[in-house]
């Protein structure tokens, strides 16, 4: 039996080359009792046969902060109230339950069912030919590019034509190729669409070229592969499943491989997953004992691995391995994934199980979900209206043409401008009869008026968003010096949505706080060693090793009294408790100590690497009090205790999970005793502590915990007990059986852990401070004044969350708190009903509800809702959701505690699906990914928890306080610019269409155009395109200083002041008037003259270009040399182009501009058309701004005349912030 166990501590059969200690080991303790020498030599420190869906999580006081999407299976808990978390594959295959009740019973996880032959892949170790014989598995060549040389053109064009407007312009271009409908030249009609498609295609081609180049570099990297019993270099792209690969220190893994052997005699390997999930902390992986000491170059390894099919779950792996006739179970701790780096291990050998596109890294390489701008969605409504208007214009022209043809039916043969009879050939010209003529007239009208739908708008929006993103990225106000990270714009589609946010959903740890834990307070055996007398040691604790000084990388505040007690060891009763407490902190963790060099060759630093900042803080604290963790292997740890190095055999370790909310380690101590040390959340620990012992100590510890939580500190409770020989043997037998189980492994391991983690003696509690990030209180206050509701969703306990809420100004003393902590659906229903009644009384004053949290004599009492995750289990995905939304919408603040990742997404969906308001989610960890992807806008904080949130986000930044600049400044600017640019593009093209329409009415509805076809084509490309793009990127309606000083100005976006149906129709009315002025003033001036149609067309196109550019100039708020250059340059460019076109003898209208420009009438008409066209706009704009100004206009006037500097803190009256709009 012992030989079948995985190696966890050095086996007596193994020559121990690290025999550095004289402390007696535990191996002889139970030999006589067990009858099996070395019977527990196979126990692992880390369970290598872990549940395939369990996370490699480490201890954390929060039950959800370290949890990851796809981390835990549907059946990982067994408890009815446990939180369900699903894999990425689950998200696509079935509806996601954001609540948790009942979710556990939906199915068995992969760890609880045998892998069937149909659901498994078979890998023959070191036999890639046989492995790939039946099923040809994917090669290791990866391809992140979208196109090949052959597929680029068809595929890219197909993708671009997903925009319906492009299909519209394609139809127009095709119609213009028909002889009967050829209004413009056939080549000219295709150019606008071809230009837009070409610009986008060039951009896509460049991006894909970079992907191809990256793929080529990646695929041609070299790895050592076992070929003919020798490791030989081989390109990554040529590696096949089943081959044995050797990886050296600091090398990157080319594929997913099961670890077979390492340079460490205990089979441990350390890997860094920063390329996979962004986490820089080291993680441990293990090789099985049965394969550990096979020298692969001399002894051929033969075996079979039966594993699950490729999936996206990077934290789970389920497999069995048959080697030398033994069947071994494999878990997440036995596999190393592509993209990981081998660290602190000389070499590692493994067998490839997933390669290329089937690796977990590539399966997860899908990027953030594509989101669409709310403004662009609303724009589609106006596009539809313009389409209907276009059809109306074409119908009017067709109807008029029908009436005209019927009226002049007898004259058609002789009319000089509509002669259907060809006297020379004695037959009709191409006259197809009345019906077809009207049909062709309709289609020709569509071709002539096609620019009513602005094709240039789409390319302009893309260019403007790129420009806006550039300036956001370059903004030094959003540069984080601490992490040396700039703002990242990962999605260019939703820049303008940043100016319309109404709800912000924020994580707490690492988002509002720094996630840099500092050990602050401790309670040991009922005594609170507070920070009142604390001091920071100038040097800190250090030890001497081989003539060199080793000291911790970080210094920790220490209490002088506690420091003296820790130095007394076991001399006194208090000293024994202090000894056990700090021993637990130093030993009960998965920290890896790394010794690093310093500038002084005699001094070395010890850096504690771990997945959790909490664990790092606790181990540094233990070191400061003289319990320094020096070394960790898979079988033992070495701790320097007050200058004496002691070795403790790690007989077993039960890692933290969200069900138990604690972790434990079983140590073989130097005195041959066996002790179990446990630490975890207070809610979990007090249930397993023997309450019959030390009641006074228990009561005092609870009181200290409450005080710590009230200060916003993160707390942990520590306990221990000693195991007898029979009890240890019973645990060991159960642990061994659970570790090697193939079915239900996770549940069995949890059961074993629960059996040993009971009747504990409490040692004390620790308190860690997670400080608020700089500027968080001020940022939250600004967001609240801006009318943005801030909801905090955290996994921390309620007291801690409330304390952070006060310190961050999320909660104020004026707020009435409504707390909902229930354990049943009915109690939740009753609490919600009572809370709704109370909130209505508190928030209603004379029938007006205020959601700003502002204070005045008549303002209502602001309400804060505090609800825990257990209550959300019964509320989400049930009929109680509507009641929760009703209550939350009346609250100024919502604080959700102890929530799981999918519950965070459920809260966002609760608001998103019931209001028309925009939502933003911000977080820093993998447990925030679902929330970030659910919200309209997702923001990732590049913090301590890796880059999972950043990789899933639309925007990323280093600090929460940058959110103020992102929303109140850039969000406001982007929304104002984009809203204006869309309306301006509609106006600009509609003016041209109306001018063409008026001309049709005077040409017997024959769709003859006075404006040269080349000028029509260049109108949207050269004449008027650059000004709108530059203004959309550079114009600022208000300065940064004003926007930050008066956050209420952000309400303009929430109220849709820059783009709405009212503005659209006013713009169309203005367009109608301007087109009348442009067309009829020259027409009347030249009525009865002999001017030719081309000369009149040149006058009209010049008048249109001058007027629309002056229209834009009137609305420009902040001028700079670029704006001047593009606006006046566009007008000059138009004159130059018209001159060039008219100078070409092979084009219609040769020399027209030269003849007409000689006359004074031409210039007078040009001037009169522009002045008459713009007068109504001037008048309306003046009256509106003088008698009914909006907030932005008031602030702009104050800026213009320097009032802001003069009035100082005088308040500017702003429009009220309205409540949420229901869908």
Automatic annotation (TrEMBL):
GO terms under cellular component: plasma membrane
Keywords linked to the UniProt accession: ATP-binding, Magnesium, Membrane, Metal-binding, Nucleotide-binding, Translocase, Transmembrane, Transmembrane helix
Q: Where is this region: Disordered?
A: 36-113
Q: How does it sit in the membrane?
A: Multi-pass membrane protein
Predominant location: membrane
Q: Where in the cell is it found?
A: Membrane
Q: What are its GO biological-process terms? A: phospholipid translocation
**TM stretches of this protein:** 188-206, 381-406, 438-459, 578-596, 616-639, 986-1011, 1017-1034, 1063-1087, 1099-1119, 1126-1154, 1160-1180
Where are the compositionally biased (Polar residues) regions? 36-60
Q: Where is the P-type ATPase N-terminal domain?
A: 123-188
Q: What class of enzyme is it?
A: translocase
Residues that hold Mg(2+) according to the record: 507, 509, 924, 928
Q: Which reaction does it catalyse?
A: ATP + H2O + phospholipidSide 1 = ADP + phosphate + phospholipidSide 2
Which residues does the record give as ATP binding sites? Answer: 507-509, 615, 656, 679, 714, 794-796, 898, 904, 927-928
Q: What is its EC number?
A: 7.6.2.1
Q: Where is the composition biased (Low complexity)?
A: 61-75
Listed name of the protein? Phospholipid-transporting ATPase
**Organism, scientific name:** Lithocarpus litseifolius
The uppermost taxa in this organism's lineage are: Eukaryota, Viridiplantae, Streptophyta, Embryophyta, Tracheophyta
